[in-house]
Structure formats: structure tokens, C-alpha cells
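Hey, quick one: can you model this chain's 3D structure?
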Amino acid sequence: MTRIEQARILVVGATGVLGSLIAERLAERGARLALHGRDASRLGGRAADATIAIDLTDADAPEAIVDRAVEALGGLDAIVIAAGVVGFDGAAETARQDLETLFTVNALAPMRIISVALPSLRQSATEGNGPVVLTISGIVSQLPTAGLASYSASKAALAAYVAAAGRELRRSGIRLVDARPGHIETGLADRPLFGTAPRFPTGHDPAAVADRLVRAIEDETTTLPPDAFVGA
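Sure thing. Here's the predicted structure for all 232 residues.
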């Protein structure tokens, strides 16, 4: 991205710990923001041109989120997709779990948001702004983990889409970046959609991860594998 100052950025999942930290850092750098979250009360008081309270599981959520962001900002130069839910299951439990919500929030809605936003991102590219989309699939997308079977699959689906779409879109001047950090201390594991979290080792500091992700928006990073977060 040419610069973050005055860049028009949509942050999906801005009420989560990591999404909130990313939004704060973008605001500090002078970005113009449209912030999405499911809970309107948690979006209040944010420094943003628009706040968008929509549940990602709603049928028309991707279109509504992008349309409202474009209307408020006059276009889009970047999208950060930090929304996500987690579930804990092995193969024997998968049939009983809420896979529809898990895959909608973690994969299907992000994929549709990217697709819906392409006209605005292409326009940004023609203006020389170096548009970028940042997703966060996590380490499980490349190292599926026992006890997180369906969660790993949902994140792997997002990572595969971003990798393929990134190859398609780079000639248009649109950069897609997928981040794959290990466990982050956001508290998400304590609020699973289903199942019980195993005991994780101490995870990454969310503030340090947010800093690394914002740097990736600014520079020419095209991938953020797990080792990019060593020390975070």
C-alpha cells in the first residue's frame, strides 16, 4: 500500500481483541475506517467514518458490509478480515457440531466479502493506491490440529481461497495477504462455538501481532507464515 494515512480501510471483526487493536493502529496512522462488528454497542465511540453492526451469518451480510463501507468512505483501499469463531472437535464429534456457523464466519463470508469488494479494489488500483486484503487463517490452516478438525478445515478453506485469488488478482494490482500466526492470547479459545479448549501453551501477544499485521499492510508482504510472528 502506498500509505495508510487517508487510506480507506474496512476492518471486519473490529470488536474482537485483535481486530480492535488493528483498528486502533490504523486510526493512529491516519486511516479512514469503516468498522464492522456484530454488536453495535461495542462499536460505539470508535474513531471511524462508519460503524457497521451486522452478523456475518446473515444471508446478505457480505454485500451489506461492503456497500456501507464504500458508501461511507467513497471507495476501498484495503480490507482487514479479523472476524472468526473457534470450535473444538475431533472426527467423532464433527457430525453434531454447528459447522454452518463455523464455516460461514471463518471462510464463506470472508470469501464473499473479497469478491463483492473487487470493483472498489480495482478502482483503487487504477488510482495507484496499492490496494490490499489481509486475512488471518492462522497456523491451523497449514498444520491441521487434532481436536480442532472442523476449525482447521474452515481456516484451510480461507487460506486456499486467498492463495488462489491472490494469484488471479496480482496483475490487477491487488495484493492479498494471509497471516498464519500460532495461538494468540485473545481469549477466543475461552468462548468456543462448541467443545472445550485443550490446554494451550502461552500464545502470542495480540498487540505485537497487530503491529506485525499493520506493517504487512504498509509494505510489500505477500504472505505471513507462522515464523513471521516469532517473538510476538
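One thing worth noting: Helices lie at 17-28, 61-73, 99-126, 149-169, 206-218.
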